[in-house]
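Good morning N.,

You mentioned wanting to compare the apo and holo forms, so I went ahead and generated the holo version with iron/sulfur cluster. This is what I fed in:
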Amino acid sequence: MFKKNDDMQKRTYCPLAWTHSFINQDGSYQVCCSSEEFDNFIRNNQNEKMYIQEGHTSSDVMNSNFMKELRLKMLNGQWPSLCERCRLTEELGGTSRRQVEIRSFENQNQNFIESTAPDGHIKTPVTSLDYRLGNLCNLQCRMCNPRSTKLWIKEWNQLKPKDEQFSSETMDSYNKYDWINSPKLIEDFKQKAKNLTHIHFAGGEPLLAPQMSAILETCIASKNAANITITYNTNLTILPQKILNLWKHFKGVKILASIDAIGELNNYIRHFSQWDKIDQNLKFIEKNHQKYKIEECMLSVTVQALNVLRLNEIYEYLEQFNFLVPVPNLINLHVPQYYQTKILPPKVKFLASQRLKNIKERYENKIPSYYKYLTDNISHIIEFMNSENHFQKDLFYQFLKFQTQFDHKKKITLSDAYPEFKMFLEK
Ligand code: SF4
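and this is what came out, ligand included:
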């Protein structure tokens, strides 16, 4: 049994290692989505990756040697290597996911720690889930990949540079994320539903996946739905009535709508999007949120070379709403590198920085203090963009080349959606 040790707890403890289950697009159990860029696969005692389709119980996964060792490391004040993103964020003075989760499990942290056996074994039930239901999606966003949308599978190797291409075996595996049709998924939910307080769905596009509705129905049948908050990352191009009706049974629904620009530019970045439909769905949520238990709807914007000059339009668009979160959540894009804001020419970066500073000044005192972190975050966006001093010409031209090739296939042009790039394309 572990004793209270505030110092250690503050340093490296993370409640997700006690109570959270994350299933990625291929059905593999992983530690959490914030550790995805590292080796975060949960392995059995033979060191093999564990998959939901193999029918493991929660205890098989959470008490594998891998998870026991992970927890012991955390309780002994060491950072597991897969938690590098949280470690770095904290070192740079930012707020890590770990710190956010500690706050949300405030009343249970001590109990989690003290009920841990000396070898790391736990009896704590899984209360929080994050399930990526395969790669079925109706969009082909420029910065996305075949792991997250099937619509990239056919064209990826034709359009991407050699070092980003996938072997035919890997590509085949992206075509076979059929674990979501396995009865094991529903059985898994039947085991877990009674203890759950939170489920997060992302994709693919979760509102498209029939399995998502089946999961919600299983939770309703467990009679625990009223204690569960559901959260989504969705492109909000669809909002099926069947799903809205299921939401009424739950404690609440929070929507993070992945939208990167307003109007045609959003359609350009998030290929196959129809802005009119998204606009209509946002207005529907504004009007009907109480009826369908929607507690929050926030725009989540992936900040990249293609939208950083036009973020002001998103803030201005949001001014018409009362229920929607008044400012978006901005997230820096890191991969692919040639989409990062860092690669832009100095003059463009200067202009974008000025515009972002104006946004911060204009909105930071207009929003409730609870959302202040969203405008504080604008400084990090500016810092990240300017963290590379010299112009990375090669990456910028790689960026332009990719847009031109993609546009050629789709019969559209960058300069129509983004006239600011016209002079560079002409050059
Ligand atoms: S510390 Fe960060 S990366 Fe590690 S499990 Fe917690 S949230 Fe995930």
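The two ends are 67 Å apart (CA to CA).

Happy to go through it together on a call whenever suits you.

Best,
F.
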